[in-house]
Amino acid sequence: MEKTTVVIGVIGADVHAVGNRIIEYAMNQAGFNVVNLGVMVSQKEFVDAAIETNAKAIIVSSLYGHGELDCRGLGDACKEAGLDVLLYVGGNLVVGKSDFEVVEEKFKKMGFDRVYPPGSDIEQGIRDLTADLKNKA
Amino acid sequence: MEKTTVVIGVIGADVHAVGNRIIEYAMNQAGFNVVNLGVMVSQKEFVDAAIETNAKAIIVSSLYGHGELDCRGLGDACKEAGLDVLLYVGGNLVVGKSDFEVVEEKFKKMGFDRVYPPGSDIEQGIRDLTADLKNKA
Amino acid sequence: MNNGKIPTRAFLEMRKEVLNQWITGKEVVLDEAIAYQASIQAEKRFSARLAKAIVEKETLVQPRAGVALPAEHIKLLKHLQDEGTADLLPTTIDSYTRHNRYHEAQTGIDESVRTGKSLLNGFPAVNHGVSVCRNIVESLNVPLQVRHGTPDARLLAEITLAGGFTSFEGGGISYNIPYGKNNSLEKTITDWQYVDRLVGYYEEKGIRINREPFGPLTGTLVPPCISHSVAILESLLAAQQGCKCITVGYGQCGNQNQDIAAIRTLEKLTKEYLGRFGYRDVVVSTVFHQWMGGFPQDEAKAYAVIGWGAATAVLSGATKVIVKSPHEAFGVPTAEANANGLKTSKQLTVMLKDQIAVETPLLVAEMDIIEKETRSILEAVLKLGNNDFGLSALRGFEAGLIDVPFAPAQCNANKALPARDNNGAIRFLDFGNLPFDEDIKAFHRQKLQERADVERRDVSFQMVIDDIYAVSKGRLVGRPR
Amino acid sequence: MNNGKIPTRAFLEMRKEVLNQWITGKEVVLDEAIAYQASIQAEKRFSARLAKAIVEKETLVQPRAGVALPAEHIKLLKHLQDEGTADLLPTTIDSYTRHNRYHEAQTGIDESVRTGKSLLNGFPAVNHGVSVCRNIVESLNVPLQVRHGTPDARLLAEITLAGGFTSFEGGGISYNIPYGKNNSLEKTITDWQYVDRLVGYYEEKGIRINREPFGPLTGTLVPPCISHSVAILESLLAAQQGCKCITVGYGQCGNQNQDIAAIRTLEKLTKEYLGRFGYRDVVVSTVFHQWMGGFPQDEAKAYAVIGWGAATAVLSGATKVIVKSPHEAFGVPTAEANANGLKTSKQLTVMLKDQIAVETPLLVAEMDIIEKETRSILEAVLKLGNNDFGLSALRGFEAGLIDVPFAPAQCNANKALPARDNNGAIRFLDFGNLPFDEDIKAFHRQKLQERADVERRDVSFQMVIDDIYAVSKGRLVGRPR
Ligand code: B12
Ligand code: B12
Questions:
Q1: Taking CA atoms, which of A73, B8, B64, C136 is between 20 and 30 Å from C54?
Q2: ipTM reported for the complex, 2 dp
Q3: Beta strands in D280-342 (DSSP E)
């Protein structure tokens, strides 16, 4: 069976590299074909990589607090590029400790399928992704 | 000039002795004649001592949380005994961290002239007492 | 006062009177109680949990907690167990019960029911009785201890042990001197021999109950040699009545070197003295009490003191640590505040588990001085009482050979005065009648003079007052302003 | 790249281009800036406050803090000063400014004004310009430092120093490797030589500005020898440009012995290398960063980590400690949470001020190994670069002789891998190309094998992952579950 390809990366001017390494490791272990764009990834790079590799999902991380400014428009960009991918985002999405439901709603409106609070276990993300991919198929 | 007599003590089944020692020391330093009843003092002992020594004030401490149960009736007992004293109370008057204004009101209703929150500086009490005694004279 | 184990027959006779002190005494049937205790599984037994901690070099965390009504009390303890991740649980008894004022405790219960708010500063176990205690024990998954401060705890012990508690704090000295005013030391020691005998009785029947002398005493600048002497005398008294599982305690002073030295010497000396009198099969563990004096009001500052206490506890190798809450300066903590103190402590006891405090020359020197002082006191005291432990304690206090600073009890000499040295270790400013030789005295004087020189003032009572306030004001040594 | 102090004329020429990078550059007039700096009283100067702390053996507390808009930023810093009792204040710069993306920073400012909420993760000092900076400095009573993570900080330095800041964090290595992806190390080192030269220029005019290489690097299991090597190279680079007041830093690892050894060797080695190259008049101080890796989410647990960091800082004798907040795991803290972190820390820095960590054999052994490792790296690197500091750094990173774990920068080898030993000290699991002799390597292997034996598993990458999560999950060593 062919492995499902996912694109992962840390968006914007964000350089938090540790979580990204672990996500790569964990998704590889879980049997995905992981395309890791690393840190400081632009929206365009995410979209281009997904097209190029025929990815089924884009996993965006944002740790440093500018997530809202950086992610705005990514959902639309995917659509415009004709991409049919699952769009996940996690990390410390906004500046400061805040009510997660508000944050979740905001990011869902931007086109994200799933939004994760700070310190979420990547294993949970993998379980959700597996289920979502199955549902789509 | 004759020294003003004050009666001090820790009410009820309360054995917190450290603050009481310091209050004795500080009031002595401030020039009062201090009658220290120590810890575990009953209402009757406070009243009797005040009568006996012709005290101008009774300084009640309660640290252990039963202050409300222990102090109830002390104001009336003083009145009944015909005492004209200033009645002060301080320490950790109720069980738990709580809104001090509510506590103050409760103790004022019981007949206390002044009520102090946890960790109050005894020097403040001495300043207030000096002023109150002057006002009364 | 007894010297030697109370004979079984005499003991059983005494019990009748004790159980008559309050109506709930009737609920206690000793054989049935032993059968009940035997049904409690090992994970919920204090002795087993402590033994495991010793082997695995863990430092367990335990809070203080107690409210007036059973349902609320269970809710509170469950929160401390589940959210606070407490390894051991307490039931702290209210002050009326501690003074055997069961009528006033009843008023407190009734008023608490009426107002829907706990008006007692602890759980009135005697008034609630045996089956309510069992209810509590059965609602929880970790071992439970009775913590109190009761000079005469005979009925309380009967009811709570029958109720399934597997550990009982206190002692004839440590629950007299800091906790009362007019209690005769002879009477409290005798009453606690009864408690120890009760525990010994359970032990004879195969039920191990943990006993814990109250280490910190007045919690206010108590030098280690004083609390060690009391802990060891109470351990001897307990062992004599057949107790086989003893946890000796110590209240943090704040100078890490002195604190670590204190826990190490406490364990060493307790075992040594128990051995000397033939009690070689007693399992000894240690408890470190986080700072027992006045706390800072600010919660962030209180967390600092709590964390430092937990860190020192684990580095010292104590078997367990009794935890404070960020509400300490204000009043009995809410369940949340209490759980927070536990979580801060647990983070550190687990995080630092793999680090050991090594024996430095400084540590060894501090251990030496504590040992010398403690031995001086104990030898003098035991001589005066002809190795009769109760009598020794009695005469020792009478003569001021043991003297607990800031104690409310009239049977305490109250002549010795402590103050911190320039590094924050607690020394003696006034020796009272403590039986120290000139070397020891010279050491203390020199240490305090060092501080006086730095502070450019004389050694005086003002230092003591400054030290009493220091921690609550963000310092350890009460420097002049 | 320069080797040697940039000549004044050349430097002044370079400035023109730099000041043109954004319109606020126009506000900087060097002579006027120096006159302004000269008007700032000693209590508000970093260099003077640090010098005082060294003499009085204090450990100062300093937070991180920065929001988008000036009025809110001043309010925030005032709170940290008055309620948090911060000894030193920061101004943390936002991430767009750090990447010289001043247009995006402007969008962030505008949106923050519109929504009434700071949408930037720091203070965009370049966009706000000189006079706004002065406003900030004048609103506060303690010294102010710029803290950021900017690979090219030339304009930021020009504006903030003219704006009255008396300390500037960063360096050509420490603000490249952990903070960027594609930045050429040659360029960042050159750009930071400019910053150092600017500070040197102020120094020539009698204005002392404190410089602080960023010690913790990626904040994630960085062994002391790595961060020491970077700190020393940056100190040499700074000293070469005329900086005379340098604070070298280190991020807590969590094993107290290693942490204390790290601070002591950092100070010693920095002075030694500065001396060796003739920079004997540089005043060296140290900064200890509280745990820089992933934090526990629970605030009570976060307080534990914060307190432990403060305690280790003061026991190590660090000149200052950079403080975390109980919100660390979630996001940029509120003013209150930030002040709470400060208060927890201050309680301990003051409480433990009078206790010193003594030199134990264990401490000496750890100091020895750190010294050996650091010297191995520095000697190899300096040899490769013929004692040209910039070139040495450049070639050293190229060759993987210095290698920062978990760095995002492509110019970093990323071959070395750290893991904790059985006591929680950070060792190497993979040496990459680090220039260690067999003795050193054997030591590390043995230490990790000890752990592997205890955990009954092989030394492997899984240990590293477990260690990365450990502190946030209440442990130090990531034991298998
Ligand atoms: C030391 C201590 C003990 C020692 C006391 C030793 C002794 N015999 O003195 C020991 C360990 C024995 C003890 C026992 C108990 N304690 Co206690 N103890 C403390 C502690 C930590 C410090 C008290 C102290 O000495 N402070 C230093 C002195 C200088 O300050 P102070 O006592 O507050 O007094 C000053 C001020 O209050 C003020 N003041 C006092 N009265 C007045 C009056 C006036 C008019 C004015 C102006 C000022 C004033 O001036 C004093 C001098 O500066 C406090 C908590 C804290 N504050 O940090 C708890 C505390 C008082 N104890 C408490 C409790 C519940 C108990 C126990 C019931 C249970 C227990 N936890 O073991 C028993 C009670 C025994 C009894 N029957 O009384 C609670 C009270 C709870 C409440 N009110 O809600 C506290 C607040 C701890 C807590 N948060 O749970 N305790
Ligand atoms: C280490 C660290 C750094 C290091 C980073 C080194 C590096 N290059 O990697 C350094 C010191 C350089 C740094 C710099 C900065 N940092 Co930083 N940093 C941290 C810290 C302490 C730990 C991050 C970490 O490595 N965690 C461990 C990994 C394993 O966890 P993780 O990153 O959270 O990732 C996991 C999960 O989030 C999840 N996840 C992530 N993405 C996704 C996506 C999906 C779909 C799912 C399911 C899960 C998931 O899975 C990951 C793996 O387990 C955090 C605070 C914290 N968490 O305790 C702050 C933090 C992230 N940093 C912060 C900030 C502000 C900064 C700086 C702007 C300023 C500063 N304080 O210096 C700069 C930014 C630089 C930049 N341009 O990006 C803030 C972000 C604030 C906010 N969002 O409100 C934090 C939260 C600290 C704080 N409270 O202020 N930082």
A1: C136
A2: 0.95
A3: 283-289, 320-322
